[in-house]
């Protein structure tokens, strides 16, 4: 047997960093054991109480509450459906793969949460609708912190991106109707083929996404085609939302449950070539109502932010 | 806009393999949309029903049942604890890390399931105790398919492994008392320092683990020191179990909830040097009951397997 470390754990060479950290954090086996509740011969019926006991030694009351409730919910589920060993194996193998195909910019657990409706529910609970304020929607798996910054009025797509040119403009306001200058507007969307930049091969530069500050008057115009927005300002609650086109096939069946009536918008065809020029948008020729027309799509949409207020207390017990 | 593929999806170049596969599997947007239930303006109250509706289009009745119940359980949990956005963020970031530190031999989602008592519960449900048969226990995160095979009686640890020599021997039997020859016994355990081979740096060879067939008489002896066993035979239900030493500090507080009374064993000090020789075990000198003694540890333990029978039907509805 090797010499012992100060906490009683034996000094072993060649351990991986993980295991070394685990051992360094441990007290002596005797001390740990003395503090644990006794458990023996767990049954399907008594196991939950036992597991909750041993997991209740957490100082943070909110975290303890979340963990204990999670154990109760997970055990109730397993018991109710009679989960079998091979099903459990498939579940953890699946979850491992979800983690392993995730990257810094591809958040597959967010997507899993999205399609199970958990994201939309958490969103609804965390950001209850405030009368007069823009409603929130789900973050989705395609947000990328690494998006480029743009100047007010610049285009967020690169030359040659499929799709038709669109200008989005509107005011960033608060619920009293005041404009909010210097709000950070983070926008992301697919190209005209319905593909996010992150879905392309290789490490291409960010495209169809960008961060823009609203101007001194609180105006935030951006040329683009489904659209996600994250709007931040130190004095206001962060708004994560999205605008859904009235013309989409999926506006009534969004698989990630983000659509709200107030977030469905319509694009207007606009022939104001001066406005196009101002925002460096190249107009296209398109048949509109049976006539050839030179123009672009315009979406006018204000966003109304909510002033920050102290958060309500979080549950720590039933 | 690019040309369309046969299913109506546009043909786009440079897509990642993932996205290509996703598109190839899709029907046309119109067809998909026509088959989806309408949803709009989800609320905290109605979202669960809506999410279940859109996730109920699964042909496998058991899978559909598991998914729908999972949605219900997850939503009930989120609503009951009032899960907040930042807590949800921490949760998916944590789960991503769990997946990313997992490897072929390091199953961190199994460990997470273990410490939440889910593994032990699934084990109890999947393998109910059969009178007279050896009870099962949890798999744990340290099983490794890549373990070496050994001949009957060979030692599974390499020269210089810390610990004291131990011989484990016993019969593999069925519940009628018949011996079971040619059962595959897969054993894994820590070394004398309490460290699994997988916890060491680098890709060292498997150590303190191995696969052995029971002999013609069904006897399965192995020299070793806490021990996991997986015993397989085509005619018998696979037994995953573990033996827990009576002398362990943690026998009443196993953090993965695997201990059962019938699996607690005691090692005996043995001075039978002929037996040691037979199993290529080098005896050590140790003070036993105040006297110097040359010997090794012996554990005699039979394993009783259950004959395979048709599995009971699994729930597909309440």
TrEMBL record, chains A, B:
Q: Name one Pfam family in it.
A: Dioxygenase_N
| Co-factor requirement | Fe(3+)
Biological process terms from the Gene Ontology for this record are: catechol-containing compound metabolic process
Q: Which domain of life is it from?
A: Eukaryota
| Keyword Oxidoreductase among record annotations | yes
Keyword vocabulary terms for this entry = Dioxygenase, Iron, Metal-binding, Oxidoreductase
Domain (Intradiol ring-cleavage dioxygenases) ranges: 168-196
GO MF annotations for this entry? Answer: catechol 1,2-dioxygenase activity; ferric iron binding
Record keywords: Cytoplasm included? no
Q: Which family does it belong to?
A: Belongs to the intradiol ring-cleavage dioxygenase family.
Name of the protein described by the UniProt record? Aromatic compound dioxygenase
């Amino acid at each position: 047997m090797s010499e012992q470390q100060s906490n009683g754990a034996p000094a072993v060479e060649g351990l991986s960093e993980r295991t070394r950290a685990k051992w360094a954090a441990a007290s002596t086996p005797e001390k740990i054991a003395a503090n644990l509740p006794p458990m023996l011969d767990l049954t399907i019926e008594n196991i939950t109480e036992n597991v909750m006991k041993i997991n209740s030694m957490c100082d943070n009351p909110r975290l303890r509450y979340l963990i204990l409730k999670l154990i109760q919910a997970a055990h109730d589920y397993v018991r109710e459906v009679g989960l079998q060993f091979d099903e459990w194996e498939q579940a953890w193998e699946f979850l491992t793969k979800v983690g392993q195909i995730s990257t810094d910019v591809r958040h597959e657990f967010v997507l899993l949460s999205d399609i199970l409706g958990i994201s939309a529910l958490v969103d609804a609970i965390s950001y209850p609708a405030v009368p007069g304020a823009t409603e929130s929607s789900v973050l989705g798996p395609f947000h990328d912190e690494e998006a480029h910054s743009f100047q007010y009025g610049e285009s967020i797509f690169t030359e040659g991106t499929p799709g038709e040119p669109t200008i989005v403009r509107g005011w960033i306001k608060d619920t009293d109707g005041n404009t909010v200058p210097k709000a950070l507007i983070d926008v992301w969307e697919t190209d005209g083929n319905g593909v996010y930049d992150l879905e392309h091969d290789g490490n291409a530069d960010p495209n169809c996404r960008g961060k823009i500050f609203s101007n001194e008057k609180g105006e935030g115009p951006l040329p683009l085609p489904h659209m996600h927005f994250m709007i931040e300002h130190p004095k206001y609650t962060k708004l994560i939302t999205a605008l859904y086109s009235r013309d989409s096939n999926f506006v009534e069946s969004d698989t990630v449950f983000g659509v709200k009536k107030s977030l469905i918008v319509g694009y207007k065809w606009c022939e104001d070539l001066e406005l196009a020029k101002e925002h460096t948008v190249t107009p296209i020729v398109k048949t509109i109502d049976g006539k050839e027309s030179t123009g672009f799509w315009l979406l006018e949409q204000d966003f109304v932010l909510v002033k920050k207020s102290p958060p309500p207390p979080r549950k720590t017990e039933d």
